[in-house]
Amino acid sequence: MGLNLAQKIIKEHLITGEMAEGSEISIKIDQTLTQDSTGTMAYLQFEAMGIPRVKTKKSVAYIDHNTLQAGFENADDHKYIQTVASKHGVYFSRPGNGICHQVQLERFGVPGMTLLGSDSHTPTGGGIGMLAIGAGGLDVAVAMGGGPYYLTMPKVSKVNLKGNLKPWVSAKDIILEVLRVLSVKGGVGKVVEYAGEGIKNLTVPERATITNMGAELGATTSIFPSDEMTKEFLKAQGRESDWIELKPDADASYDEEIEIDLDSLEPLAAKPHSPDNVEKVKEIGKIKVDQVAIGSCTNSSFMDMMKVAKILKGKTVKSDVSLVIAPGSKQVLTMLAQNGALADMVAAGARILESACGPCIGMGQAPKTDAVSLRTFNRNFEGRSGTKSAQVYLVSPEVAAASAITGVMTNPKDLGDAPEIKIPSEFVTDDNMVVEPAPEGAEVEVVRGPNIKPFPLNKELGEKLEGKALIKVEDNITTDHIMPSNAKLLPYRSNIPYLAEYCLTPCDPDFPKRAKENGGGFIIGGSNYGQGSSREHAALAPLQLGVKAVITKSFARIHMANLINSGIIPMTFENEADYDEIDMGDDIVIENIVNQIKNGSRLTVKNKTKNKDIPVNVTLSERQVEMILAGGLINYTKKQNQ
Ligand code: MIC
Ligand code: SF4
Fold this sequence. Notes:
By secondary structure, the chain is of the alpha/beta class.
């Protein structure tokens, strides 16, 4: 039996384990990326490992998230990242150079290579045929040091694209349709591989929109083949020599297959407050719009921006709509400036933001109370925009631009003929905003501002775990709930004690206080707990507050790995109905836990308040068992090196 694309790249990079679905494997990582909101922690952890120089083919540190300098904190973190990167052999992408995923795709991505990034949208690189995976900062630090990346051998799902997109329908609508079909849990444990006639006409940036938002499926990653289209893109980026052809074997098999008919696809939108709450734009109707935001790592390519510019040209943004546009990279912004499209946007009344994440991570542009905000982004979790009552809809650049002009949610088909945008045969390439690391052995002073605080470390697991159920939350809790991010909190990504004061506060403002008063305890959650971002702060903040274990119906992949890395035990109810058997405030005990964990995956949790034994599963590999016993990955590594 032949191999599919994902299996081929995994096979090439396999270090340990068997490529049997569900078993733990480890792979070699060729490239890493970090960004500034997860990067400080990743480099602090890298430094703690004591490895002088990164061992990857290329590691890049981006500054793209914390770009509001309301105080010294972000600027301090940037200086730390720049100096620590230089010292240890990491390229540094300066603020202004663009969003990590967009720049990585344009300038560094190589088909067939593996990329590990401390950001959940790292799978953007799948658009160019990379096996690109998002992970916690500590896993990325290990990979930078040349260590393997451990993951569960995924299933591979094939998404067969049939036909061709009709005018005004775009790549964003494809991924929204996949989300509608599969849901935000549908990709867990899977790689989503795109195939079929329909992929031939999709350009690399369009493919990247699709693989980017595959993160919202909970997938390990998403990937396209590397074909003529990929070659054209790399050639236009002046990197034709990086191209190789990559496709699945003709007799490759897949664990599941879905088909999407591009011909019948229509403009779609994800309604509040979940990326899979998808409906046709024409069915949602002409609701009044207050804000439109165009950009983010999902939709900020040159072609996306050109579509927007063409729609805006000669028009004026409706008087009660605020339109903000953030081109994804310096390359994109330069080209828009050179060809006049930027002038068309500005003339129409668009507010141009720097090439960075910006409003996507709540760094400015919080909408007004109860606002309807249309965004070309990838996440519309409640409150992520900075305004809890805002109604955020995720849409394509075409729908966004059309609606900015009319002031109501608009099916762009109503505008008449669609503009024709061709991918350029040559992009403007100038990597002058990427700083090369200092030569090996050179003296580099790593600058640490007062904002950088030591991160919490867990202890060896004791004989018994005991404490209160500190909080009980429902299904699909995101890391934005667990560790919110906004303009006020992002500056503290290197200060866990401060951040911990806000842990889970969107669910319950008293959680941090209660956790501290009780000396820690347990979190009880529903299914897909921890979906969304890769931020390990969503594990480190609970650790700081003394959380010992999280008991849920199921976990999202990256968050579960981050919990284990921190030595917090992820447990799942054997019978989902037992979720009802624990209430907030109940006293919980797990006796003899070390032996229980060593002897198998089934543990007994005693709810002392209700006098009830509840069976839970702790599904860990042997390596993860050792990590939990040692109190997390750092303690485990130290122990191994003793
Ligand atoms: C996000 O989109 O939520 C982020 C901000 O990029 C995160 C990373 C972070 O929390 O810093 C992600 O997606 O991993
Ligand atoms: Fe940045 Fe938003 Fe992309 Fe996260 S999803 S990397 S915040 S643009």
